[in-house]
Structures are given as structure tokens and as C-alpha cells.
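Running this now, will post back.
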Amino acid sequence: MAKYVTPVLVLVVAVLAVALFVRGGEVLTALAISTTNVSASTTNITNTAPTCQEATCYDADTTTDNIDLVGGDTRFVYCRAVCNDNNGWGNIINYTGTIGTSGSDCTPATYLSCYQNTTCENTSSVNTTAQNIQCSYNFWFHADNTSQDGSWTGGIKAGDVPGLESAQTTDTIDVQALLALGVNSVLSFGAKSAAINDSQTTHSHTIYNYGNIQMDFQVNGSAMSCTVSTIPAEYLKASLSAATAYSAAYPLTATLDGPDTGDKFDSFNLAEGTTTTGSPVVASSSPSYWGIGIPSGVSGNCQGSIWFAAVAS
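Update: finished.
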């Protein structure tokens, strides 16, 4: 049995040697014809653009998004947002805001449909990278109302030292329609003789539209108290034309006419104000015209009151 052991072992060894040689040759040949080189990519981000979020715009007095304008005056509107810069909030150098009917990027700025603020304020710190920002606006009485011109959109942006700027965060508000008029404080008829009526309504009295919609007007009046006796309210008459005879003019009464009967001045159609070169312009009428009748037995100085009411055209 021992004679056959050695040849078998030799054969096995020889086969294994050939297998290792061939496999080793394949590996060496593959490495020789396909070599791969790898380079690492690196960068250093030294600055990132700021971001603004959570915008809210509202009436400063009511803290709602319905803006109630003030006749002949301004109403404060605030827009606020949180602005962040990953490089620290000190890296931000400016905050700007716009609010308008044509969108948050409205241009140019006007008192009717667009307001801009290039000096919005950081009111407080949130943390080392974020600040609470507030942009304030004085809305004039003739700013476009939402029912006619659509909602207003406000937004805030932040800019940093290298000049990178955030996207604009936005919010919307509604500006309410405002009916408001103004008149001069005194309507003087001058010196008159008793028992004589004006032949025409030639005493002019200007009416101003202190709202943001087109308006007509209605009037009433009190009796005029005189040194001696009184002048009844109906002796005061009004017209839209200086050529109107006193007898054809509208007599005042002690109560206002209702919208369905007060047709004497429905054609007044006084438009809302306009804007020129950054200044609000109050719309004023071609004046209303007035005449007065003097009853017998009246003398001395006379004083009374006339009340005006705005009516939507």
C-alpha cells in the first residue's frame, strides 16, 4: 500500500501550484492595464445669504390685517418678520420692506398703491443669528381700497456685508373703503338786507374728499340765531352751479336726506385723492354754491350750522 501514496501526493501538489500561478498571473495582468486615481474635493463656505420668514402685516392700532384708514390723516401699518444669518446677525447690514397692491416688490413708491421702507428696524434679538425685524408705514387716507384694487402684499428682505440678499417673505392685508369729506370751517354770506333773497347761489364753499372712494354729498342745517329773531334752515340753499337761481336751489332741512331721496348732489362725483411726486393731493370740488334768504324782522349777527355727509357715488 505504501508504494502508491507518494505519487498521489505529488500530483495534488502539482495541481495546486498551477492554480496559484494562473490566478496570480491574472491579478498581476489586471493591475497592469487598469489603474484608478482619486482626488478629494474641498471648499470653505465663508458666507451664506440671510433668510427672512414668518412675515405678518397688520394695523398698528387694531393688530388685525384689516386696515381702517383715517379721514384726512395717516394710519400706522406694521410688517414684521424674523431674519436670520448663519454668519451671525451682525453680518446683516440692511433690512428693506415694500407693501402694495401690485405685489410685495411694487415700484415706484406712491401714497396710493405702494409704500417702501429702506430703513426697517431690528427690534430685538432672537438668538446669535436671528433678529425680529419691523417695517413701519404711514398709510394715507386715499390709499387704494381692497374692494376696488385688490389686497395689499407686504414683504421684508435682508442684505448682508458681501451684498447677498434674502428672498422676500410676504403677507397680505385688506384696506377698507373710507367715506370722509372735509369743508372749510366758515361759510360767510357777508352783509345782507332784511327781506331780500340772493338772486343766485354765488357764495362758494369747497368740499374735500378725505376718503379713498368717489363720493357725493348731502347736507342739512340748523336755523341761524340772530341778534334779533332767527333765519329758518330752509332759507339757506345750495347748488352745484353759481348760475342757479336762488329760487331753484336746494333748501336745507333739519334732517339729512336718505340715499334714495338725496338726489340733489348725486352728480357731484368727487373723486378720491391723487399723488404727485411723493405728495398726497386732496381732491377738492368745483365748489358748492350757496345763497341765503333773510326774513322780515331779522337783524344783527346771525350764526348757525351746516352739516355735510359723504355718500358713495
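Residues 5-33 form the longest helix (29 residues). More later if anyone needs it.
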